[in-house]
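Input sequence (486 aa), recorded before submission:
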Amino acid sequence: MTYDIIIIGAGLGGLTAGAKLAREGKKVLLLEQHDRPGGCATTFKRRDFTMEVGLHEMDGLHPRDMKKRIFQDLGVFDRVEFLAVPEFYRFINERFDLVIPHDPEEAKMILKSAFPGDEQGIDDYFHHVLNAKRVMIEYRNQPEKSVGQFLDEIISNEDLKLVLLGNLGYFHDDPYTLSWLYYLTAQGSYYGGRANFIKGGSQQLSNALSAIITENGGDVKLNSLVTTIDYDRKTPVGVSYEDVKGENRGTYSDQAKEIVVNAAVPNLAHTLLSKSDGKTLSEQIRQNRIGASLLTVYYGFNRSLTKVGNKHYSTFIYDASVRSQADILENNHSDFSTRSFTFVDYSQVDSALAPEGKSVGAACCVDYPSDWEELTREEYNRMKADVADVITDRCDKIIPGFRDAVEYMEVATSLSVKRFTLNPGGAAYGFAQNPGKPTGYLNALPANIHIASAWGKFGGGFSGSIIGGYMTAIDLLRKSHVKSGK
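Predicted structure, token format:
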């Protein structure tokens, strides 16, 4: 069959692109290798519990946030309920225990009270975070620096730097190799417009976008693994894919003038493209580092954790051994008994992830395939159980009664992320956002192949993927208007 656009992958980038294109009258085929749409924006059921795979909090949805305009355009707000998260995060190490609100003025007051002598640095930090676009223009022709370097320039107290970097794991594993401009843009959206959780889990958003595609005449095919991009001479003209489950198992091919890739760019280079195009793309991405992955312990509780005294939605726990931001990367490779992690208590909002009287939570930390790859299956399962036990003990020390409330728990490692997303290294956010990250690969593709994923222009996370998908759709619509002479 022939389509206007074929989209490879039903992560948020592909879904957003597909929804916009279908609403604009384009004939869309979206192919997804998993059994549900969403990529990391999915949920899964265990007993009474709906486990949230990826979303802790979605930044923004304030008037200036592009996602708000995208959701209004696509009609998402009519289908999905967004719940305001009560505060940005609680930060804990053995020296400080602070709750950071989303309101920047309130946050500044709390930080200045806790860190006298660094008032100017705190003001400087928030000035840059809240004016990221202006800062980007101001520093346009200057060498890029890291957020670690930025913090060292304006702040003297190492614990203050750690508090400000509490949610670093949302972006990267090391402040000294994270672009400060990327960080400022992302962090500013949390402080500038609060954050939200999707009632019922992020699968609700993915399902809504998928439904928009099908309701507007598009096709969404799950369990459909794209194996190659097909060529006519040197021009991509379609894809071949396998139906990997169900009654229609087999290999199929469909054609389209434009192909949108919501998949890992290294996979595009090494597997999907022709030998010549793949080689060109491989050369262009050689200097790009693949980002870190995540480990998650999913919890189902026999009661709401508010009943055992927990008062906070997101709690970031830094080990006492992390004394400066220079210690963060080493800590992310340390034993799980000391590795810093986040605990999210979804019972702090009306999440609809568990039946009345029960609740769901998740502990999450940076993870790497090298932690797991050399293990036998038995060793792998035993280590997962040990990690769950260790992190549960650490949570119990912060929230007394935590362990007694656990009814179910399950661990997903970086290898789990790799298996379900096909991302090399289980990368959660695509390419690492290093200072001066090469972007030439975006121009190294055939003219009718487009990237709409965490591996593209706007980076990873929910926001980067959604905005990337939407802007890809806009570019394609403009391209079709030019061709048609409109």
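Checked by second reader. The first helix runs from residue 12 to 23.
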